[in-house]
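Thread: Newbie trying to understand structure tokens

Hi all, I'm a second-year student working on a class project, and my supervisor (Dr. K.) asked me to get a predicted structure for one chain before our next meeting. I've only ever worked with sequences, so writing a 3D structure as a token string is new to me. If someone could post the tokens and maybe explain what I'm looking at, I'd be very grateful. Here's the chain:
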Amino acid sequence: MSAPITPRKKRRNLQSDRKARCHQLYSSDDVIKLYEISRNTLTNWIAEGLPFADAEMRLFRGKDLNAFHARRRKRASGPPLAPFMANCFGCKGTHSLIDGDISIHPGRTPGMFRASVTCPHTRVPANKYVCSEEIDTIRKLREANPGCETRD
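---
Reply by user tm_fold:
Sure, no problem. This is what the structure looks like when written as tokens:
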């Protein structure tokens, strides 16, 4: 007989920025237990700029831990996406929904649609979820923007 399969815990790359108590001091072991990380991860966080008080043992303020994770989350989210642009996971760039051929499909929630444009580099669809008002605006902008069809 085989052992029952237990689902693996999903790996979390970014920690919550409200996990630690603001006015509490944490030792290295406390931080490791709180965030369920390894010692190497804590060492990497210190190298990335996590402040600590170097006493007989390293002490971390809860306020500093929360601020550190808030900065990591903000840095990981990247710059905000411009209007009428779609993220491409193939080339890691953005592509305009106004230029080129787009396709519009209904989304999972009512009133939401998925606008897709094909990446010219990788031929992978770049998607953005938009509402019906944004679709109307995209159509108007596409009609007003002749693109490369005009003669110079």
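A couple of things are worth pointing out once you decode it. Residues 25-77 form one domain. DSSP finds four helices and eight strands in the chain. Feel free to ask follow-ups in this thread.
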